[in-house]
Amino acid sequence: MRAHVRRRSPDEEEESVFVSMTDMTISFLFIVMILLAFFASQYNPTQSVPRPEYDRVVTERDQAQADLQVQAEIVEKLRKALAQALQARDASELALSRAKADQAKLVQANDAKDVLIKALELQIFDAQAKIASQTAALAAAREHEQFQSEEIARMRAEIERLTAPDPLENYINLSLQERRHLLERLRADILHDFPDIGVEISEQFDALRFQGDGLFRSGSATLRPDRVDFVRSVAARLQSVLPCYTLGPEAAWDATCNASHAVIEAVQIEGHTDADGGDITNLQLSTARANATFVTMLEAASGLTGHLNLKDQPVMSVAGYGEMRPVAMNDTPEGKASNRRIDLRIIMYVPNTVAEIDQIRAKLEAR
After folding, report:
1. Which one of 42, 127, 180, 262 has the minimum C-beta count within 10 Å?
2. How far apart are CA 283 and CA 142, in angstroms?
3. Mean pLDDT of all residues in the chain?
4. Angle at the Cα of 173 from the Cα atoms of 171 and 174, rounded to 5 degrees
5. Which tops the pLDDT comparison, 108 or 6?
6. 3-class DSSP state for residue 264?
7. CATH class of 167-366
8. Interval 321-327 mean pLDDT
9. Can you give the residue ranges of every domain in the chain?
């Protein structure tokens, strides 16, 4: 069985605490008494100091303590200053470390920059070398192009010189073209007046051809009465065009009718026969027919003899060729009829020099 524990009352508890405190006090006093007895046994009057000395020592002690306190404060200040100095040193060392790191970075950056600068300098050198090479190549190309241009210009000039028509030859060709146009115009005008009479232009485009049987009877040198008006019409047509191609009092040059400045040397009335009969007879007959035609033309247009060439000679002339210049075979009636004819041949003046062309133009334009 559990023992029965009696609960204490508050008064009993307070009495117990008091008793404990009393015991402790007595024990403390006893200890003090023992200590006093010990110190009394240790006391030696010979070892004591006088009061003034004691006071002096106390004063020095107090002064030393005050000095010590001051020194302690100074030491504390120095310690704090040292701590601050150390802290500042650490900060400086940190800053120095950072500065060294930055310096290292700068050195590294400078080294990289130097490397980059050297690389750029090499690139610039290469670029300058390329530019110099390209400049030299461009200069060479331009020089070659200039040479080619000059060569092309020279070749073109040579081609133009070789292909350009000779002024003298060009003038002659234009004169021949002008004669062809003149003959075509005369033929068209004559056929307009007399469409029943055969009028042809020669193969060389230098003459108008009238069938002999159309103007004269066979073996006769007298114009048929019904063909006199035809010859007179030819004279009138010729008189209207000659002033633009000749000199003399009848001259009337104009660029609209003769832009080439062509000049007629002669307008020749030619008589031709077939092969029947003797040579002399045919020459006489062809000449007589040409003369008869010319006389009839002068009766209609007396001014024909006033048209002059560059030698101040009349351009009108007469010739008889008999049977010597046939245009067809004389073995058929048709061929003989073609050979019995009157040709109105126009001969253009052919200059010998280019300077003469300018003289011709001046003479025509002066009229």
Report:
1. 42
2. 76
3. 85
4. 65
5. 108
6. strand
7. alpha beta
8. 93
9. 74-164, 167-366
Task: Write the DSSP symbol of residue 363.
Answer: H
- Name the DSSP letter for residue 223: B
pLDDT reading at 6 higher than 80: no
Longest CA–CA separation in the chain, Å: 215
Tokens of residue 142, six digits? 């331009």
Task: Provide the pLDDT for residue 2.
Answer: 47
Q: For residue 327, what is the DSSP state? A: S
Q: CA–CA distance from 363 to each of 101, 251, 263 (Å)?
A: 108, 10, 10
Lookup: tokens for 13: 């508890």
Closest CA to 340 of 352, 349, 353, 327: 327
List, in order, residues 6 or more apart from 17 with CB less than 8 Å away: none
Q: Using DSSP, state whether 269 is helix, strand or coil.
A: strand
* ∠ Cα 274 188 170 (to 5°): 90
Element (H, E) at 190: helix 167-193
CA distance 175 to 182: 10
What is the secondary structure of 262-302 as a DSSP string? Answer: --EEEEEEEEE--SSS-HHHHHHHHHHHHHHHHHHHHHH-G
Q: Residue 19's pLDDT is what? A: 63
Q: Distance (Å, rounded) from C-alpha 353 to C-alpha 193?
A: 41
Q: Tally the residues of the chain.
A: 367
**Using CA atoms in the order 8, 9, 13, 14, what is the torsion angle rounded to 10 degrees?**
-170
Q: Which residues have C-beta within 8 Å of that of residue 11, sequence separation ≥ 6? A: none
Q: What's the whole-model pTM score?
A: 0.57
Q: What is the mean pLDDT of residues 157-171?
A: 82
Angle made by CA atoms 118, 123, 124, in degrees to the nearest 5: 95
From the list 264, 258, 241, the residue with the least C-alpha distance to 185 is 241
**For residues 351 and 262, what is the distance between their CA atoms, to the nearest angstrom?**
10
pLDDT, tens digit, 9 for 90 and up, residues 218-239:
788 999 999 999 999 999 999 9
Looking at the DSSP bridge assignments, the partners of residue 266 are 347
43's CB contacts (< 8 A; 6+ apart) are none
